[in-house]
Design goal:
about 425 residues, Alpha-Beta Plaits, Maf protein, 3 domains, six-stranded mixed sheet, five-stranded mixed sheet, 17 strands, about 25% strand
Amino acid sequence: MIAEIISIGTELLLGDIVNTNAQYIARRLKDLGIFVYYQTVVGDNEKRLMDAFEIAFKRSDIVITTGGLGPTQDDLSKEVAAKYFNKNLILDEETFRSVEEYFSKRKLQLTEGIKKQALIIEGAKALKNDYGTAPGIYFEENGKVLIMMPGPPKEMIPLFENRVVPILLRYTDNILMSKVLRIAGIGESFVEDRIKDLIEVQTNPTIAPYVKDGEVTLRITAKAKDEREAIELIEPVVKEINERLEGYVYGEGDTSLEEVLGTLLLKHNLKIAIAESCTGGMLTSRLVNFPGISASLVEGLVTYSNESKMKRLNVSEETLKSFGAVSKECAIEMARGVALTSNSDIGISSTGIAGPLGGTEQKPVGLVYLGLYFNGKEKYKELRLSGDRQRIRLLTTNLALLWLINEIRLWERGE
């Protein structure tokens, strides 16, 4: 099967936005054994988009589009596609109910533009969008396949993986199986450097890195005649990556740092308390994302001022005078204080300079200390982070969650 990618959007055509969608889709089609001979970028113009469809379907079997499915008047993709196939646009009831529920919960007005997103091509199948209101579309007629997806990558990528890949597998001779490794505490460039040789020689299975919210995901994908053969291809690669990235791979599949940590805490009936300064409650909030964490999480405190650190956590005035609030000594006392005053097995703390103000030559923006009290043992971790205020807080939170995961796993092994 020959596929063509049409990226729709004037902002792409003018270079205002980098076309990462086409790159992603092309790589994944290669993994599936579907050849991509052409890529087209076209603006939000009815005539030029119609011309793009005419050309694409003359030379390709599968046409995959991104963009132009939104609520505004210049979102024309499915309207032009319906006209090309001489079909009407009809309301997809399931999509409309989902959109209605989304807006009703948020007490937002459901406009005609939003309703427009629930329209699909007559005879097509709506592909549920778990991260947005515009569904994807799958349509086939006379041996030609059209797959339409929204433009935002945060919507397109999961829709492609969860809805489109199973459809595309119908047009290949092999099955496709993937294993996802979740990585934190190390940047994409460092990950790629450690497994560069594996990526350079990859054929089957393939290794695809993705970055999101300060984490790196590696998708190892094998093409095989059956599941057993796919597993045999994937497992040695997974084992090698785990060895090279030991301490950074925190989980597999559809999971998160807070889910892995929460599961470990509940498994061992460990009580935890959190004292935050620079993260301002972000660490506690992330852990609260995990259902059932109330059985483990005793409390989370934002002790931002020195007075609060002394009064609530028993951080000594001498420590603050001698070393400052941003110090390993303060971080350890914060962790110890929150653990002992809450009668918890684990106390963890964060204190640092998130910026953009407040840094000095000795203590620059991005300097963060984490403190840990775990069953009477005390540790600290010094971080040197870069980026804006939000990124520093996010990375600190990720690294704190990862540190706890690794410490509990070491404790499990008696190390």
